[in-house]
Hints:
Chain A is built from five helices and eight strands, in the order H-E-E-E-H-E-E-H-E-E-H-E-H. By secondary structure, chain A is of the alpha+beta class.
Amino acid sequence: MNIPNYSYSQQTADGEKGPGDYTIEQLRMAQDFSLPAVKKVLATIPVQKPDRQVFFRVCPEESYRIQAATLDIRANRETYIVLPEVAEEIQDVIRIQTLYLGVTRQEDIFIFPVTLPGVDGKDNPWNESSREAAERAMTKWVRMSADMAAGCYKIYEALGELPEPVWPDHTFQQILNVAFKNRVIDSLEHPVLQQLRGEL
Amino acid sequence: MKDFDTFSEIWVADFEFTVTLGNNPTPVCLTALEIKSGRWELLWLDGQANPPPPYPTGKDSLFVCYFASAEISCHLALNWPVPENVLDLYTEFRNLTNGLPLVAGNGLIGALAHFGLDTMGAAEKTDMRNLIMRGGPWNEDERSAILQYCKSDVEALYRLLTHMETLIDLPRALLRGRYMKAVAAIERNGVPIDVKSLNSITSNLPELKERLISEVDASYGVFQGSTVFRAENWMRLLAINDIPWPHLPSGRIDLSDNAFKEMSDIYPDIKPMRELRQLLGKLRLNCLSIGKDGRNRSLLRPFSSRTGRNQPSNSRFIFGPATWLRGLIRPPPGAGLAYLDWSQQEFGIAAALSGDKAMMEAYSSGDPYLAFAKQAGAVPEDATKQTHSAERARFKACVLAVQYGMGPESLAKKIGQTPAHARILLQLHRQTYKRFWQWSDNVLDFAMTRGYLQTVFGWTLRITRGKTNPRTLRNFPMQANGAEMLRLACCFAVERGIKVIAPVHDAILIEYPSKDKDRAIESAFQAMREASEYVLNGFPLRSDVNTVEHPNRFISPEDAGTWYKIMEIVGEIKGGANTRSLGLRG
């Protein structure tokens, strides 16, 4: 049996390549799929305390946290952001919170709201421990769970050497826009406030 | 079209030939059309002494046919030079439609029908096929009718070429044609079989089955008569021993091998029955196609699977039935066989194509499983296969689980731990090989948005809505590029004069004269290494080799027990033949 070698290396007389003139390297096509064909869309971003079983990190960059007035509607488990001009008028129902950007080990991002002390400077152990958890989570993977007997959150640091988190390439403004989409109270006539006043 | 114009002559050709199971074809006639000049060649070959080919076979001409390995086999039978440039419209039709539903299959008619072309002349005419297969001599009228029949195929093929030429990526199509040439050579070589042992088994098959059953069933009492497995007897046995058993949605007892496997893991007493059922299910030997020269030959059916792999008949090809039957493979006197396969091929391909440095390092370490455990921080840097065998086994299971697309539940069963443990292992893989996972996600996204995936040399899978499993898509680059690698290795090896006798999944089996063993194996290693470098852009994969010399057999130590057992029983049936002298590969 002798099959002659098959050559891809010959050129035609005028220098143009014929189909039999390619080297195998020249026929090779890239397989890197380097340009992702789709971009992950931020459709929903939860505003919540992290689950007690989930380790999370908080973005340490200052541009990724904000102090804002929020309003919790517990019946619907919804958190609204209240614009400052409205917040001044309804101080009795709102809370001033720091909104942090958090991320889980599964690379799911969330807004972690932590309540600041009241105008009188009064704080409570739940808020204090939440704040401590957020600050620790800027450098370590932590999880927090409620300790009802002690009246605060217990904070646990991951023991393993876990890799650094992957942060989204969106601005914090873009993230907040998604997190509070349709949940911005920008006037006293907002239906949520009307409901609270018993007008609806 | 410009690419086609670079050839001075383009020949569309078809042979008629006779062939019997396991043997090489004998050409009967040839018709060929040179499409630029319109010149026809109708050549009667049967009974002719060494006729020369009626067309040039050098680099300036193009040879076009449908299922080229058959036409090239005729060239080999006639001792004609093999055309340098082969365009196989079968492989190109497969490549254009791989993954799509077809109206009438992959044959010449199917291809014509797919493009809405006239199928006239392409139909297999039973009376003509019978006339050809009857064998010669043929009278003048019969010859004329056979030649006209052959000519009508070429006319149909020309219609197909005219339609397909703008759809074909010719340079890469020629690379596929190059593989079809290698396939023809490999099929012609065939795998040497110990026909005497095969005949001993097949001629004593009923008694062999009875003996196997009576040996095992003595402790169960499930079979009725001597060969029929009775489900009700099995259910009674389960009830007596208080063993729960899976049922099908229909309510009937599940007698699949999977059910037996799962249950024998929990109830080891069931294992012998499972092994018996497996063995009986695979004792179908009558279909193996063995030629007069004692060699197994079966169409390799190249490019038949979605990944472009060969898909030879499971019943006709010696590598199809149970693995212990490979004991029938025995090199002839003065020769040896070498089975060469790439080490951890899929892992290596995934590493190189994704460009994941950690994964490439793990592959290059020689033991990717232990390297993965080290990279994940699960074992110390100085850990070895001996000091951390259990951890290595877990990480190996994890790597394979990722390759097979297993979830935590299946991996948990495999490693005998909880799904939580398995989930952590899988998570470690994602964390350690981030770039690979990003690339794998991109593969899936690319496939779903563009509607196709392609290998380095253009083998294409087309995605039809809702019909392709995401796992299939993620695995495609590894498996289909693995197939490209095997094809290139076969081409290189055959072209360098190595006697390749079978491609087997990610391996090749070669035969060599014993005196030439080292050179042949080294040359085959080199072919495999180069093939991996071409596919992986310079990243070489390692290969392993197992060899066997006459009179020993090609069988693994794991299968040796079964082989001996079967041959011992056959020997007893025949009246005490000395089976131990059959020999076993060391």
